[in-house]
Amino acid sequence: MYDLIVLGAGAVGENVADRAVQGGLTVALVEHELVGGECSYWACMPSKALLRSGAVLRAVQHVPGAAEAVTGKLDVQAVLARRNSFTHDWNDDSQAEWVASAGITLVRGFGLLTGTKEVTVTASDGSETVLTAQHAVAIATGSDAFIPDIDGLRAAKPWTSRDATSARQTPDSLVIIGGGVVATEMATAYAGFDTTVTLISRGGLLSGMEPFAGEMVTKALRDLGATVLLNTETKRVQRNENGVVVETGDGSVITASEVLVATGRTPRTQDIGLETVGLTPGKWLETDDTLLVPGFDWLYAVGDVNHRALLTHQGKYQARAAGDVIAARAKGKPVSADPWGTHVATADHESVPQVTFTDPEVASVGLTADAAAKAGYNNIRVVDYEIGNVAGASVHADGYEGKARMVVDEDRSVILGVTFVGPDVSELLQAATFAVVGQVPIARLWHAVPAYPTMNEIWLRLLETYGRPRG
């Protein structure tokens, strides 16, 4: 008997368990793969390791003096070796040691809901252990790559994001189906490896972001040598002895060594026993802001599986709230469930930060202009500024190209969203996140003076473009 059982020992599940233990509960953490999950071994960390070396090389090439010192090409095998160091060669001993040191009981095996507050774990040897929760079960099983219904695609055994980030060798050529974050990041990485990359998107790139983000990333990918096909349907995929053959809706045929499908995610809820408690397998799990599944007083869904914000940092944010509220409820302590309270994930709705590690990077938080209008903000103002005109950007790199957008709610004089596109703009994002989450009035932001000459001066330029308040 444990106070809490957590299904899934990825970054999200680990954080739920840790916060609950710190709140005085006993916790069993169930995992059938690697402790640390998708982010540690197949997503955030290995993908960024694959991207970083190419980004550094290109950055040096834009700074005279340093550029002359670097005359060679990217050492792809060294990049892959560095990637392996981040995944510990897909060994989770260090993560398992952390779980034990945190006072969490790790139960290895496949966990299945078999009743109210009951989980049956099947180990690799077939043995079964029945775990019972005194207070709660938290589902943190994450998501898998979605494979669309394209003729021949499944039979062609396409790469998913896992294959792309864990590849031991890089293919000579790669077709990528999709236009979102995974598609554009992997196109950037593999184009930097001198792989011949063709990206096929049924719309534009990064369509959920400000339009200029996708436009700038499209140009950058083409400058890297990638072929980018926009508003193009993938009609058929076949694998033969030489690789894959991809046919598009206009009849064009592309041959490549491999095909990567990057068209979204699907929840890992198909085989975890949801039907035993009246829920539908294979569906996303809806929650309230305390991450509790409606209709239950014991079942929580945290991270990708609830489809609120499919980002590791946002899942960990949810996990901290969920672990704390589970402990509070178990101990009969007050629950702070009002917006922005201790036990809620309020930021999931309109204050989510995200970085796409293409080159240029796309860093955003909050609402785009389009999303703000759709959310019912009827009096918004959009302020744009070219980051390359900022002194700090000109020092950062010759010919720096970038753009910033600030979306302002004029009724309250607060920022609803900010988007930066350009080299290294990810380091500008936290200030924007503070402004959006804190709902800092524009008049007060004038007193947050950016240091000169840094790229943070973009804030002053955005405010100047917006206009100084008159006293």
Can you tell me about this structure?
There is one protein chain. With 471 residues, the chain is of the alpha/beta class. It has 15 helices and 21 strands. It has helices at 11-22, 37-41, 44-60, 76-87, 93-101, 161-166, 181-192, 211-223, 312-330, 347-350, 369-374, 391-396, 429-437, 442-445, 458-466, and strands spanning 2-7, 27-31, 105-108, 110-115, 118-122, 128-139, 143-145, 173-177, 196-200, 227-229, 234-240, 243-248, 253-256, 258-261, 265-267, 299-301, 353-356, 361-366, 380-386, 403-409, 414-422. The strands form 5 sheets. Strands 1, 2, 3, 4, 5, 6 and 16 form a 7-stranded mixed sheet that branches. A 5-stranded antiparallel sheet has the order 17-18-21-20-19, sandwiched between helices. A hairpin with a 4-residue loop joins β17 and β18. α1 (11-22) packs parallel to α9, α3 runs antiparallel to α4 and α3 (44-60) crosses α7. The longest helix is centred in the last third of the chain and has 19 residues, at 312-330.
